[in-house]
């Protein structure tokens, strides 16, 4: 089981790398994000679909593709645009030429491939053609946010996909970039804390189960910070986690903060967060009915769950916490 968790961690690690490869050329994440955004903007101008929604769908596909071996084993995201189609779907189920790039014959055989850049070709290998073709599907129900949500549902047949893509689009709009991979340690470096790897340990309260996170022990009221850009998906009481908070980042990770003593002012479901933002305070809530406190020393329970397009699973956050801690020390975040 622990060996399997290490494999999963390697998959997630690709989202923490500082460089990516495109067509054999090493580029920064910032440059790659700018290049992607320029394609989203161009497609938006052609179809009328907001670039943030197009980017949200592409991000969702990118996240799911990491579980389908669509990217190299080395963990480098080499695909500029993740939205894709099978050759059969692109050229048409009855098309004898599965590499057909003629929009007229593709349409004749019931294929979906369209010319997105005006070169007279509908190439599956061309990111502009794929973006345009996919965005045309988003207009199937008409313009407007609700119609786009219906179209997204028709594509993925999954309510969670609609929710996450909507969240990604909100994040891209709020920060006006797709480069939102920065992270921060959940506690201030100077605050005085201690933690070790506790993921997978046995827990008995409420039934035998494993510990799906890392406990960071600190004083009551120590500020807790968001580790990522994200959307607050869950906030409120849980008999296990007490006052807890769940934040979804653009890579499909659900960051879970539990046993809090309270929340930062104005934080609510749907709030947008960024790395280092104060979101709550260390406490000892939980293990009982609403308001239960003090059944264990004050600490932050921090967990990460990953969505694979069908369900969610937890993975060990300890290596990432150590990496983010070192990063914050280096950057002088005290």
Structure description:
Residues 1-24 and 70-78 have low confidence and may be disordered. The protein is built from nine helices and 14 strands. Helix 2 (29-47) packs across helix 3, helix 2 packs across helix 6 and helix 3 packs across helix 8. By secondary structure, the protein is of the alpha+beta class. It folds into two domains: 17-84 and 124-175, no CATH class; 189-331, Glucose Permease (Domain IIA), CATH 2.70.70. It has helices spanning 2-13, 29-47, 51-65, 87-91, 103-108, 127-138, 145-156, 159-175, 318-331; strands at 19-22, 25-28, 193-195, 202-203, 209-210, 214-218, 223-225, 230-238, 242-248, 253-263, 272-273, 278-282, 299-307, 312-315. The longest helix has 19 residues, at 29-47. It is 34% helix and 21% strand. Strands 3, 6, 7, 8, 9, 10, 11, 12, 13 and 14 form a ten-stranded antiparallel β-sheet that branches. A two-stranded antiparallel sheet has the order 1-2. Strands 4-5 form a two-stranded antiparallel ribbon. The chain is elongated and about 70 Å long.
